[in-house]
Design brief:
The protein contains 6 helices and 10 strands; from the N terminus they run E-E-H-E-E-E-E-H-E-H-H-E-H-E-E-H. Strands 3-10-9-6-7-8 form a 6-stranded mixed β-sheet, with helices on one face. It has a single domain, classed as Glutaredoxin. Helix 1 packs antiparallel against helix 6 and helix 3 packs parallel to helix 4. With about 250 residues, it is an alpha+beta fold.
Length: about 250
């Protein structure tokens, strides 16, 4: 500002906008605060979603800590990256756990020789029929050596009035025929063979996960992380089960 003949005259060119530095400081502070609040919100949303899933699944009484075999000698907690595995279907086609990435997966470890598994299968069958979709799949890994044993166990569990071939070593053709007659539409879950690697009863995949008895089940999110683990059987038809599963299916 210059003074000429006692008259104040601005040195800014005509039409110029003059911003008070104090306004810049306040505006900058508001902007920084807004960014900080956005970052805090983005951090809180997934944590809140994780707490919601844990709360929804509490009624199923999941195991509080992972099996030490999954921790590779270190201290770990859920969520925990699920070890990948390779299993085969009855045609001999291989499938990997990572093939289901992007879906919520319930991996159910079971066996034909397991009586508790037999009582759990109808409950698993009903739940899978209700919830299986493009977002959710049930994978049943059977700790068995032959597909005949697996197929006949499914018939016995899900269609108990159907006669099944007798004998210790039923040919796969007979077992498959009995399965197709008893369950012409198949089952709403995916079944794969997990044969033991030694003389024991537990499949190689199950043993690698530290499993010593079946049934056990792992609930895995879309990123391949175990979010909840259930030792022994569960009633998969209870309302609390659907609440637990849907909370993870609906999680962004």
């Amino acid at each position: 500002m210059q003074m000429a003949n006692g008259v104040s005259r601005s040195t800014n060119p005509p039409g110029a906008v003059v911003i008070d530095p104090r306004v810049l400081i306040v505006g900058g502070a508001v902007a920084v605060l807004g960014v900080a609040m956005l970052i805090a919100f983005l951090w809180m949303v997934p944590h809140a979603a994780a707490r919601e899933v844990r709360a929804a699944c509490e009624g199923l009484k999941p195991d509080p800590r992972p099996n030490p075999a999954l921790c590779k000698g270190e201290t770990c907690a859920f969520p925990l990256q699920a070890p990948d595995f390779t299993a085969v279907d009855y045609r001999g086609k291989q499938v990997h756990l990572h093939d289901f990435r992007g879906k919520v997966v319930l991996v159910n470890f079971w066996a034909s020789w397991c009586g508790v598994c037999r009582t759990e299968k109808p409950l698993l069958d009903q739940m899978a029929g209700d919830l299986t979709s493009d977002d959710f799949v049930v994978v049943a890994l059977a700790s068995d050596r032959t597909w005949s044993d697996v197929l006949l166990a499914l018939v016995e569990a899900l269609s108990p009035d159907t006669p099944i071939p007798a004998g210790e070593h039923v040919p796969i053709e007979q077992a498959l025929k009995a399965y197709q007659q008893a369950l012409p539409s198949g089952v709403p879950f995916q079944v794969y063979l997990d044969p033991p690697a030694d003389d024991g009863n537990i499949g190689a995949i199950a043993a690698a996960w530290g499993i010593k008895a079946v049934p056990e089940s792992a609930l895995i999110d879309r990123q391949g992380r175990i979010r909840a683990y259930f030792g022994n059987k569960r009633d998969w038809t209870l309302p609390v089960t659907e609440t637990c599963l849907r909370s993870l299916i609906d999680e962004d």
